Each structure stands twice: as structure tokens, then as C-alpha cells.
């Protein structure tokens, strides 16, 4: 063989040896200091960070140290659902603790795993205080693990934003617009005030209806509704009596709406402005109204028209009677 051939074989052998013994980048496998013989399992601790320098994990101060405890169990042994893996201190903070997870492997031992994350609180060579792992009566001790926390990590260029043109500042409002807005506002307010004043002045001059005109208008509305049916006698006579009560209260200051029928009729007896015939006219009207409201009397349509006409006659006859001043 030539010298070039032997060199090629030597370089190939060195490359194979180096590839087989190199540790995976950014990951470190840790085995316990002791492996109790009574435990039918193999225990490992995996650490992953931002780099692996001389067998030490490297983590950025803004990054996280990912840790996972795995138990490869043969037989019927079951680990406890909860166990402490990390001791709290001033260098690290625990984040994202996952529950114990079971993975079935066909034809092989069961795999149990528990993952959590650690955040460094300051840079430097920090020791990770892993707690002893207690499985039943056995206790597994971990070796001392030191992690290098750095602040000069390379930036992720994928997080850079594209260059964008400068943003335009909003155009300031022109002060001249107030010269247009303010006069319009003043004119609108002035028109509203003038309209309110005109309404107050001319509205107060509107002709007010007299008690007689109000009563006759309401009686006309009752008449326009037509003769009531038998079931509507009570509302008909209630409305009719209310019109007369309001009329008497407006004319002679009688508190008619708050009095019973006997009290109302008794007070009318002491009014010198009413004649005997007018008092009897009211008494007849209110007797029909009480019969319809309380006794459920069946009055004919003709009797309803007569009562309405009697009320209209009473209002017209007493229009010229003197009223009491308030």
C-alpha cells in the first residue's frame, strides 16, 4: 500500500473514534453517586441548556435549565407520585414542574419520568442543589453539578425585525378651526335659548279651558264611545262619576276624589250655590254609578244614555253658578 492510502485509513479511524465518544451538544447525563441494590431500576438525571463546555452545561441568564429524572424500572416496583428533586436556594428558581409520567415500552422495562425547569437568578458558576431521591426505604444521592450561567450569549438573528420606513407623526390640529367651530356652537346655543323663551312667553298665553269646558269635552268622549255592553257598565259609570267629581272639585274646591259617595253628597248639601234640583240630579247619578260598580246592577242602554245626559245637564246648569276662590 502507498503512504496516501495509510493516511486515509488513519484519518477515517480517528473520525469514527471521535464521533462515538463525543457527548451530545447542550445535554448532560448524570448518574447517582450510589445505586441502591434493592431498587430494581436504573436512575438517571438529564440536564439541557444553551451549550456544553468541557462537560459543563452552559445557560444564558435569560434562559432556562431543563432537567428530567428518569427511572427505568423492571418488575412491579412503582415510584411515589410526588417526590422532591430540587432544594430551593438563592441561585435558582423552579418553574414548570410536570407530574410524574409513565411510558409503556413493548417487551421492555417501564419508563417513569419527571421534568422541571430552573431559572438562574444571577450569572457565574452556580451549583445546582439536587435533593436526595427517596424511593421507599432507599435514598439516592446525586453528585455536585455546576452550571455556567453567562450573559454574553449570541443573539438570535431570527428575532430581528425588518427595516421599516420611519413612521409619520400625526398632523397637529390647526388652531384656525376653532374660529369656525366656536361661532357655530354659539349660534346653535342662542337659537335654542330664543326658542325656549318664545315658548315660555307665547305658551303661557294659550287659552285655558274652564272646568265646564273640560267636563263637557270628557262627556263627549264618553258619548262617542257608544252605549256600553253589560260587562262594561262598571267602567262606564266609574268614568262618568270621576268626571263629575273633578268638575265639582274645580268649581267649588270640594275634595271629591278623596271622599266616598255619601261624604261627597253630604258636603254638596252645604253648598248654597246648588239648588235642590241640582243636588237631587247628582244624587241620582251617583246612585246609578254605585249600583253598577258595587251591586252589579244590570242597567239598560237607555238608562246609560239618560245618565250621560243628566251629567251634561248638571254641568251646563251650574256653569253660571259662582265658584269658590282658591
In terms of quaternary structure, the protein is single chain
How would you sum up the global shape?
Answer: elongated
Using the CA coordinates, give the radius of gyration: 53 Å
H and E string:
HEEEEEEEEEEEEHHHHHH
Strand element count:
12
Main structural class: alpha+beta
Quote the beta fraction.
15-25%
Poorly predicted regions are 11-25
DSSP helix fraction: 25-40%
Integer average pLDDT: 76
Rounded to the nearest angstrom, the distance between the terminal CA atoms is 142 Å
The major pleated sheet works out as:
6 strands, antiparallel
Discrete helix count: 7
3D architecture notes:
This protein has 326 residues and is of the alpha+beta class. The chain contains 7 helices and 12 strands. The strands form 3 sheets. Strands 1, 2, 5, 6, 7 and 8 form a 6-stranded antiparallel beta sheet that branches. Strands 3-4-12-9 form a 4-stranded mixed beta sheet, with no helix packed on it. A hairpin with a 6-residue loop joins β7 (101-103) and β8. α3 (211-224) runs antiparallel to α4, α4 runs antiparallel to α6 (276-293) and α4 runs parallel beside α7 (301-317).
Indicate the topology:
Layout: H1 3-21, E1 27-30, E2 41-48, E3 51-53, E4 56-60, E5 65-73, E6 92-95, E7 101-103, E8 110-120, E9 124-128, E10 133-135, E11 138-140, E12 145-150, H2 178-203, H3 211-224, H4 233-252, H5 261-268, H6 276-293, H7 301-317
Parallel strand pairs: 4-12
Antiparallel strand pairs: 1-2, 2-5, 3-4, 5-8, 6-8, 7-8, 9-12, 10-11
Helix pairs in contact: 3-4, 3-7, 4-6, 4-7, 6-7
Amino acid at each position: 500500500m502507498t503512504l496516501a492510502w495509510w493516511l486515509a485509513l488513519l484519518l477515517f479511524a480517528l473520525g469514527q473514534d471521535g464521533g462515538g465518544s463525543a457527548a451530545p451538544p447542550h445535554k448532560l447525563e448524570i448518574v447517582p453517586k450510589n445505586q441502591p441494590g434493592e431498587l430494581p431500576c436504573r436512575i438517571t438525571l438529564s440536564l439541557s441548556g444553551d451549550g456544553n463546555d468541557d462537560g459543563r452545561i452552559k445557560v444564558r441568564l435569560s434562559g432556562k435549565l431543563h432537567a428530567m429524572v428518569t427511572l427505568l424500572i423492571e418488575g412491579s416496583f412503582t415510584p411515589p407520585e410526588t417526590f422532591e428533586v430540587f432544594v430551593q436556594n438563592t441561585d435558582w428558581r423552579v418553574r414548570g414542574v410536570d407530574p410524574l409520567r409513565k411510558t409503556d415500552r413493548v417487551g421492555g422495562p417501564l419508563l417513569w419520568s419527571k421534568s422541571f425547569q430552573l431559572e438562574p437568578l444571577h450569572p457565574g458558576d452556580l451549583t445546582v442543589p439536587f435533593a436526595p431521591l427517596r424511593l421507599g426505604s432507599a435514598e439516592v444521592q446525586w453528585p455536585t453539578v455546576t452550571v455556567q450561567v453567562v450573559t454574553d450569549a449570541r443573539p438570535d438573528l431570527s428575532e430581528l425585525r425588518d427595516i421599516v420606513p420611519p413612521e409619520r407623526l400625526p398632523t397637529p390640529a390647526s388652531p384656525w378651526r376653532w374660529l369656525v367651530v366656536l361661532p357655530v356652537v354659539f349660534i346653535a346655543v342662542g337659537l335654542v335659548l330664543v326658542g325656549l323663551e318664545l315658548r315660555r312667553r307665547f305658551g303661557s298665553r294659550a287659552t285655558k279651558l274652564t272646568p265646564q269646558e273640560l267636563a263637557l269635552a270628557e262627556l263627549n268622549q264618553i258619548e262617542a264611545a257608544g252605549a256600553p255592553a253589560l260587562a262594561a257598565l262598571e267602567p262606564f259609570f266609574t268614568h262618568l262619576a270621576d268626571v263629575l267629581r273633578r268638575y265639582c272639585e274645580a268649581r267649588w274646591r270640594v275634595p271629591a276624589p278623596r271622599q266616598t259617595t255619601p261624604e261627597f253628597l253630604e258636603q254638596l248639601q252645604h253648598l248654597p250655590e246648588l239648588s235642590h234640583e241640582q243636588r237631587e240630579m247628582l244624587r241620582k247619578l251617583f246612585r246609578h254609578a254605585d249600583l253598577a260598580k258595587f251591586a252589579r246592577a244590570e242597567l239598560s242602554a237607555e238608562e246609560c244614555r239618560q245618565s250621560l245626559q243628566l251629567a251634561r245637564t248638571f254641568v251646563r246648569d251650574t256653569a253660571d253658578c259662582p265658584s269658590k276662590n282658591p
